[in-house]
Amino acid sequence: MLQASVVQASVASPLRSSSQPVAQSIARATRKSHTVVAFDITLPGLDSSGPRRILQRALGGDARMQVMATDRRHDCVTLHVEAPSRSLADVIGIVTSRFESATLGRATTYSLRR
């Protein structure tokens, strides 16, 4: 005679373990995700102050910029720019409309949880 065996399974809740307080679990669940677009842009000239002001006004006060390279031989400067809460299409549109002789390098997006 065959006997049937009963298999039981239990699933643990993935929200929190017993070592995590409830407040930490709630805080992690309520953090917002922000999209950030990061790109490099090469501009003619060695002075980056004018292009930085233009980008700051166009992309908003939260945009961050830093000079990555200055090429005296080719008379250009390369900036690395990070623009939060923007889409990639918005950033490309802003850059192409503000700078007619700029070279846009690799542009990436990533999510930042705060």
Give the helix/strand layout:
Blueprint: H1 22-30, E1 33-44, H2 49-59, E2 64-71, E3 76-84, H3 88-98, E4 103-113
Antiparallel strand pairs: 1-3, 1-4, 2-3
Give an overview of the whole structure:
- This protein is α+β, with helices and mostly antiparallel strands.
- It has a single domain (34-113), classed as 2-Layer Sandwich (Alpha-Beta Plaits).
- The chain has three helices and four strands.
- The protein has a four-stranded antiparallel β-sheet, covered by helices on one side.
- α2 crosses α3 (88-98).
- It starts with 21 loop residues before the first helix and ends with a strand.
- Mean pLDDT is 81; it is low at 5-13.
The helix content is 25-40%
- The number of domains is 1
User: How many DSSP helices?
Assistant: 3
Question: What separation lies between the terminal Cα atoms?
Answer: 62 Å
Low-confidence stretches: 5-13
What's the alpha carbon Rg, rounded to whole Å? 24 Å
Largest sheet: 4 strands, antiparallel
CATH topology: Alpha-Beta Plaits
Strand content: 35-45%
Q: So what's the CATH class?
A: Alpha Beta
Shape: elongated
How are the strands ordered across the major sheet?
2-3-1-4
Helix/strand class: alpha+beta
Provide a short characterization of the protein structure:
The protein is 27% helix and 35% strand. It has helices at residues 22-30, 49-59, 88-98, and strands spanning 33-44, 64-71, 76-84, 103-113. The protein has 114 residues and is of the alpha+beta class.
